[in-house]
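INFO batch 0412 | record 1 of 1 | parsing
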Amino acid sequence: MSRSFDNQTQHERAQVALTILRVVLGCLFIWVFFENRRKGLYSPSGYSGLINYYIEKGHAPQLLKAVMGFMANHAGFAGPMQGVTEISLGVLLLIGLLTRPVALVAFLFLSTLWVAEWGTSWIWELLIPMFVALALVIGAAGRKWGIDALLARRSPRSVLW
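INFO prediction complete | emitting tokens
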């Protein structure tokens, strides 16, 4: 077998691995959306209650706690916006559309949640999905089994997929 065939096989396997991570992370966001919706966490009282718990019990930096306080005070808007964010990230990752920018938003979103939850939850709960999202930013996870694969035919050098 030629060396280029081996490299091509390794590249194909890496793309499949990233694609699996993309689909799983998308499913996680979709699952969390429906779980949070069922718990009422996108309602003003549910959202503000959760955020105030993180402010009171968590070890996030004061600046982030101030931002969280602002969000809790505007829970009628912030709660539903978080829901829209979570379901949108999930669906876009699942279908592989604009994977790199969506994965970057997911990484930043999860990173902020991770810091906000310091001292209130298991450290790895959000850390692993954060780094999965970062891996999706670096790799071309949408170019395999995703809409980005179709878009890449027209514009193969785009950083969006």
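INFO post-check: The chain has a mean pLDDT of 93.
INFO record closed
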